[in-house]
Amino acid sequence: MKYFSAFILLAVISYTGSQIIKQELHDDSFKAETNDLRIQGGEKTTIKKFPYMISVHTTNGLRGAAVIINKYWGLTAGIIFYRYMNGTLTFRAGSTQQNRGKILKVDKYFDHPKYSGGWTDDLTIFKFTKPIKISNTMKPISIASSLPKNGTMVTVSGWGDEEWMKENSGTTQLKAVKVKYVHSKTCQPLYQDDIDDGNFCSLTPGRSPCAFDWGAPVMHQQKLIGIYVGGEDCGSITKPPLYLDLTRYRQWILDTIRKNSKSYEIDEINIE
C-alpha cells in the first residue's frame, strides 16, 4: 500500500509541474519560441559583443565558462572548481574561439560557503594573479541589482554542447541565444528540493545553454543577472535549464572581495 501511495504522490507532483508549465505557455508573455538552429538554438557571435567571457578548460577539453567582473576578479559556477585543484584548470579570455585567447592565471578562489555540489548556492569567485588589461575583447560586466519582469527575453552566451552530453556537439566559436526568463516559483515544482529561491529557469523550447556551459552568463540590459548551473536536459520545458540568481549573491560577492583585496583594488569594484 505504501508503494502505491508513493506512486500516486509522484504522479501528482508530475501532473502539477506539467500544469504549471502549460499555464505559463498559454500566457501571452510565455508563447513558445522555436529556432531551427540547434550553446542550443544559438547563433555564432564574437567576443567583442561579450568581452567579459572566459572559457575554462581541463586537460580533457572544455569545462565551462566564467565571467570577468573587474580587472582583478571573476566568477563562475561552483561546479567548475568542484573537485579540481587550483592550477589544474586553464582560463582563456579575449577570443571568440574557446581554445585560443590569453591565458589568465588564478591566484585564489572562494566557493560559496553553502555550496555542496548541487544547483543551489552554485557559485565561486576567483582572483587573477595579475590584473587583466582592459580592451575591446577583455573587459568586466557589472552585476544587476534586480531581476527583469517575468517572461522577459534575456541573453546567454557560451561554447557548450548543442545537445545534452552528445559527444562532439560543442563549438569552438562563441554562441549566444535569447531565452525567456522565468522566476523561481515556476521552476521549483519541476525540481522539488533540488533548487530554491536563489535559482531561476528559462522556458524556451529548443533554445538554451547546455552541457559544458556551466558558469555561462545570463545578461539583461548589458548587466549580469545570473549564470547557468545545469538542469536535466537542454531546451526542455519539463526540466528547463537552471540558473543562479546573482542579484541575491551581490553582498556575499562584495564582502568576499573586500576581505581579500588591497585597498586600491576595492576602489575599482563595480557590481552596481
UniProtKB/TrEMBL annotation:
<dbReference type="InterPro" id="IPR043504">
    <property type="entry name" value="Peptidase_S1_PA_chymotrypsin"/>
</dbReference>
<dbReference type="InterPro" id="IPR001254">
    <property type="entry name" value="Trypsin_dom"/>
</dbReference>
<keyword id="KW-0378">Hydrolase</keyword>
<keyword id="KW-0720">Serine protease</keyword>
<dbReference type="GO" id="GO:0004252">
    <property type="term" value="F:serine-type endopeptidase activity"/>
</dbReference>
<keyword id="KW-0732">Signal</keyword>
<feature type="signal peptide">
    <location>
        <begin position="1"/>
        <end position="18"/>
    </location>
</feature>
<keyword id="KW-0645">Protease</keyword>
<dbReference type="InterPro" id="IPR009003">
    <property type="entry name" value="Peptidase_S1_PA"/>
</dbReference>
<keyword id="KW-1015">Disulfide bond</keyword>
<protein>
    <recommendedName>
        <fullName>Peptidase S1 domain-containing protein</fullName>
    </recommendedName>
</protein>
<dbReference type="Pfam" id="PF00089">
    <property type="entry name" value="Trypsin"/>
</dbReference>
<dbReference type="InterPro" id="IPR050430">
    <property type="entry name" value="Peptidase_S1"/>
</dbReference>
<feature type="domain" description="Peptidase S1">
    <location>
        <begin position="39"/>
        <end position="258"/>
    </location>
</feature>
<dbReference type="GO" id="GO:0006508">
    <property type="term" value="P:proteolysis"/>
</dbReference>
